[in-house]
Amino acid sequence: MGRWICKGSWWVWLGLNGVLAAAVGIVVWAGAKAQDPMPQPLPVVSFSESEYVVGEGDGSVTITVTLSQASTGTVTVDYATSDGTATSHHCIAADYVAASGTLSFAPGQTSRAVVIYILENPVCESSRTFTVTLSNPRGGSLGSPSTSAVTILDNDSCE
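Above: the chain sequence. Below: its structure as tokens.
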């Protein structure tokens, strides 16, 4: 839809999808392109809490990892535990089972859980801690807290 308009020695086509102009054998086409929508910021991945407390006899602790907003694509992030005063490698007195892996958030999903197993041991000791760390986000960015401390409360009676 449109029409030709003559302006002196110029012919101009006025239409809904652009302007076609011709002058002295030279043709120029200028069209308006629809702008792509503004890109959405990447979702931020982080722990829901910076500290968790669990009893030695509880069996496990569930650590929640969240996205700041739902994504239209898959978001992944790596996680890993590391020893503090709590250890995962001592045969008799290990406090927890070391864990590492990759969490994957499907499109629209904003929360995932990491379950870490807590070990009952016969050693009388004070509270112990270990950390869980997020790293290497893909499809999102790393937020805070990206490290969470887990405190294990001892249930042994020290006599």
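Residues 1-32 form one domain.
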